């Protein structure tokens, strides 16, 4: 047994005494994962813990002396720089060079009082591995590098005792552990330029009893809490890049050598690895767990991908049985946080459940405020009181379960967090939450109307990603009901305005099918649905089908409400259709039926596409055309030339300029009737790109003809379309004027 390493000798001694790892952890007051790391050689055991092992396992003095020689022998001799990092360097650490450099720069540039940096974020293993790698890579910059485990106040105090023993402080054996903490603080005062790492701090507030090193040293904290208060700076650890993710996965699974470059990986293996990394949403903890499973079972990438897709909940509960310094699975890691939030702040847990069923990337705070009471009526107070909402969101941020995007004000949630939350529910509960999510989105998503255009359009743009999430929920759970139908119709109206006619038609048809199931064939909602479908067919110039649907809608409304109960807007749309088909006499008959219903005071909005002949562009070469899905009619004019301009003559009371907004677009000067009235910057300081965005609107012009001119001052500019507002009434044909 002499040739065996210390770690293996400890494991064999425990197994020979028939003491389980669970029992050993309970008797020593450590976690199973920590002891597993010691027994597998990934964590360096302290002398104090070694002696306690010997005491529990009844190891005799001669054998103990041999173990101590292994601990303090030539291989473990203290270096000139005090070093107390109880973890081996990760041979499979991948990428993150820029991140490590930023950690070092922020630690070094912090002035007195700010030489503390907290690495925050989801999961467990990622932050700890960053701290370990930083300690090894930048050890030469410090006079000492020391590590304390801090997942609870008790663990932190025990780690302080072990560190004091390592430093041979006289207070090492003190019964008053606070005396040991004070002695460590004094040691830091006397030894400047030291780095102290506090790993896995469960709650930064618990550090109030611990005297952090003085200003002549540096402190690095790892914690899941995004909010660390006045302790110092914080740095959120985000997901890995796709390339880093597949390198970590394949290297850690021993499928490629640590030095293998991406270009050397076979195409089939690379494709599967990318797919797995995408499914795991590039989270280091999940990638390590997957790699451990692949290494242990040898199942292969294709089998693992199929297993994850079909049994995701079970896979995410799998432990990393090949020892690491983290003992929890992905699911368990977040389950512990969920349980604490449910106990401490029930409103926060309901916001989390709502976010679990939404698009994870753009959940705007005002959207949550407008929708939460319709997700759970007990949370009406959050809709009325932003302070309560902020507190509830703040609780989720503490545990890094959601993030706040500073550039857009939106919340985001990790896709695997969503998966774990949904997988924790039975099918009936999931369906219930999906239905409630649709109700919430339906309440927040506005109805696009010309009268409320400026109020609703931007909200529709911001919230449409959540409508798309609801469409998936409707498909998965076969949802139906009045709320579902209403949301489909509102989304159809929005898509119609964006000229996404085919998709709008699908949503209108879906709403009609649901309403027929709910109400039968003779109901006012059916007439409304038929009118919506008629309009979308008209937009696509399928005028014969549009006319049939208009007649069906009018006939049904007459049957239900009488001839005087038909919606005026439906009659007007039908009369306009007759005019389009050059049936002026029939159209006039319908206008006479409509009567004077504010015919001269109906505000209308006409969209002029970028290729309309009414828009005149200046010199050739300044503008190019492009085809792009999402633009109005899927096309636009584009320029990067300062001085490029266009003008348009229109008749109405207002005009809008519709463009793309990105971080790259620039400034334009706008004139109406030869008078410069506005200079606007069309850039958006968010990473998000929006098409069909209103960048200028002027709607209080006097009725009549006007001329718009736009000059590009700097940067790029996209003209997608113009929209003209006017008060349009019916002008009878000459044969019927009198």
Share in β-strands: 15-25%
> Percentage of helical residues?
40-55%
Rg measurement, Å: 33 Å
What best-fitting shape do the alpha-carbon axes yield?
elongated
Low-confidence runs of at least 5 consecutive residues: 76-80, 321-326, 731-738
Descriptive overview:
This protein has 738 residues and is an alpha+beta fold. It has 28 helices and 21 strands. The strands form 5 sheets. The protein has a 6-stranded parallel beta sheet with strand order 1-3-4-5-2-6. A 5-stranded antiparallel beta sheet has the order 11-14-19-16-17, with no helix packed on it. Helix 8 crosses helix 9. The termini are far apart.
Concise structural overview:
With 738 residues, the chain is an alpha+beta fold.
């Amino acid at each position: 047994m002499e040739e065996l390493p210390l770690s293996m000798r400890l494991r064999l001694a425990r197994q020979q005494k028939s003491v389980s790892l669970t029992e050993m952890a309970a008797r020593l007051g450590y976690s199973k994962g920590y002891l597993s790391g010691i027994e597998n050689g990934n964590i360096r055991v302290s002398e104090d813990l070694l002696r306690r092992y010997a005491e529990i396992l009844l190891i005799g003095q001669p054998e103990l002396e041999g173990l101590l020689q292994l601990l303090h022998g030539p291989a473990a001799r203290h270096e000139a720089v005090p070093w107390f990092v109880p973890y081996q360097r990760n041979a499979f650490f991948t990428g993150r060079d820029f991140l490590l450099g930023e950690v070092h720069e922020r630690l070094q540039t912090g002035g007195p009082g700010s030489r503390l940096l907290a690495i925050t974020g989801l999961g467990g293993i990622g932050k700890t591995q960053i701290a370990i790698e930083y300690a090894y890579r930048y050890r030469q910059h410090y006079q000492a590098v020391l590590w304390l485990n801090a997942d609870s106040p008790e663990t932190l105090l025990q780690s302080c005792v072990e560190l004091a023993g390592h430093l041979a402080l006289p207070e090492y054996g003190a019964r008053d552990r606070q005396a040991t903490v004070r002695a460590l603080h004094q040691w830091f005062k006397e030894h400047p330029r030291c780095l102290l790492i506090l790993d896995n701090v469960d709650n930064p507030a618990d550090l109030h009893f611990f005297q952090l090193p003085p200003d002549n040293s540096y402190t690095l904290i790892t914690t899941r809490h995004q909010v660390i208060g006045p302790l110092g700076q914080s740095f959120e650890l985000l997901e890995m890049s796709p390339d880093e993710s597949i390198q970590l996965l394949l290297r850690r699974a021993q499928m490629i050598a640590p030095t293998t470059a991406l270009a050397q990986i076979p195409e089939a293996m690379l494709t599967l690895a990318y797919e797995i990394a995408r499914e795991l949403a590039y989270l280091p903890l999940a990638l390590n767990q997957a790699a451990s499973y692949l290494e242990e079972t040898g199942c292969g990438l294709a089998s693992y991908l199929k297993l994850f897709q079909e049994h995701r909940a079970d896979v995410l509960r799998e432990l990393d049985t090949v020892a690491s310094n983290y003992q929890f699975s992905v699911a368990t890691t977040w389950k512990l946080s969920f349980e604490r939030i449910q106990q401490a702040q029930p409103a926060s847990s309901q916001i989390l459940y709502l976010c679990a069923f939404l698009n994870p990337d753009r959940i705007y705070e005002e959207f949550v405020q407008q929708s939460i009471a319709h997700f759970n009526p007990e949370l009406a107070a959050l809709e009325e009181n932003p302070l309560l909402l902020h507190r509830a969101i703040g609780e989720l941020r503490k545990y890094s379960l959601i993030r706040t995007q500073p550039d857009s004000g939106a919340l985001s949630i990790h896709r695997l967090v969503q998966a774990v939350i949904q997988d924790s529910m039975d099918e009936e509960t999931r369906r219930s939450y999906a239905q409630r999510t649709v109700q919430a989105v339906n309440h927040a998503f506005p109805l696009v109307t010309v009268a409320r255009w400026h109020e609703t359009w931007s909200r529709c743009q911001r919230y449409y990603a959540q409508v798309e999430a609801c469409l998936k929920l409707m498909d998965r759970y076969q949802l139906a009901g009045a709320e579902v139908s209403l949301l489909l119709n509102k989304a159809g109206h929005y898509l119609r305005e964006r000229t996404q006619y085919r998709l709008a038609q699908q949503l209108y048809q879906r709403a009609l099918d649901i309403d027929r199931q709910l109400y039968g064939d003779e109901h006012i909602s059916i007439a409304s649905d038929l009118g919506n479908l008629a309009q979308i067919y008209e937009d696509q110039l399928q005028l014969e089908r549009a006319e049939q649907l208009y007649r069906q809608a009018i006939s049904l409304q007459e049957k239900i409400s009488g001839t005087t109960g038909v919606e005026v807007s439906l009659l007007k749309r039908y009369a306009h259709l007759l005019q389009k088909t050059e049936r002026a006499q029939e159209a006039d008959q319908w206008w006479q039926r409509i009567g004077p219903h504010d015919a001269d005071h109906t505000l209308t909005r006409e969209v002029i596409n970028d290729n309309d002949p009414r828009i005149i562009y200046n010199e050739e070469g300044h503008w190019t055309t492009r085809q792009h899905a999402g633009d109005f009619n899927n096309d636009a004019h584009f320029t990067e030339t300062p001085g490029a301009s266009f003008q348009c003559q229109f008749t109405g009371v207002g005009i809008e300029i519709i463009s793309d907004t990105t971080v790259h677009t620039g400034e334009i000067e706008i004139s109406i009737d030869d008078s410069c009235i506005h200079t606007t910057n069309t850039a958006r300081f968010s990473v998000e790109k929006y098409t069909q965005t209103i960048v200028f609107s002027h709607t209080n012009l006097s009725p009549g003809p006007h001329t718009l001119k736009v000059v590009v001052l700097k940067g790029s500019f996209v003209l997608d379309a113009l929209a003209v507002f006017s008060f349009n009434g019916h002008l009878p044909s000459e044969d019927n004027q009198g």
